[in-house]
Amino acid sequence: MSFSVSQSLQELYLDCRSELEAVLFARLRCRETAADLSQEAFVRLCRSEDLSKVGNLRAYLFRTAQNLLYDHYRSQSVRNATIADWPEPDLPDAPDLRCAETVALSEQALDSLIGSLAELPPLCQRIFYLNRFEGMKQREIAEQLGISVRTVEDNIKRALLHCAKSLAQP
């Protein structure tokens, strides 16, 4: 990145950051998410390899932020759909967790769950692991693996549904 482009981005940041966050906040009603999306838009702009063809950096920045906002809405939609698809567990009366039978059944369910996860494609397993065990957000996983956020969301949903079906089987 040349000095002039870097300087332009710095000026753009100083001029537009507050306005961009205000626009995003007006739509989201969440200051933290608005700040996150604003920051992500600037990061993407800074990571762009060639901004020389962009005529209006400010408009480009706001368009990038708007696209990130749409991604955020899609992500929320998938998350809500995933939660809605998750079957309600049939909870029996509180079992005695101290008995050997309960421990054996729990270990059997855990083995079944591990086997179920092993049946998934490697990419799906990796995405599920990063999300559920490493605590990474969908966007972070997508960037790390070089795939779309939509692919990450679809694979997480696939893994959760597969596990739920596996646990529901006798």
Q: How would you describe the shape?
A: elongated
Mean pLDDT across every amino acid position: 85
H/E element order: HHHHHHH
Q: How far is the N terminus from the C terminus?
A: 59 Å
Largest sheet: none
Query: How would you name the oligomeric state of the polypeptide chains in this document?
Result: single chain
**Helix fraction by DSSP (H/I, runs of at least 4):** over 70%
Give the helix/strand class: mainly alpha
Query: How many strands appear in the DSSP assignment?
Result: 0
Give a structural overview.
By secondary structure, the protein is mostly helical. 76% of the residues lie in helices and 0% in strands. The chain contains 7 helices and no strands. The chain has helices at residues 3-28, 31-47, 57-85, 100-118, 122-132, 138-145, 149-168. Helix 5 (122-132) packs across helix 7 (149-168). The radius of gyration is 22 Å and the shape is elongated. The model has no long low-confidence stretch (mean pLDDT 85).
What's the quick description here?
The protein is mainly alpha-helical.
Task: Provide the descriptors you would attach to this structure in a database record.
170 residues; 7 helices
Write the layout of secondary structure elements.
Layout: H1 3-28, H2 31-47, H3 57-85, H4 100-118, H5 122-132, H6 138-145, H7 149-168
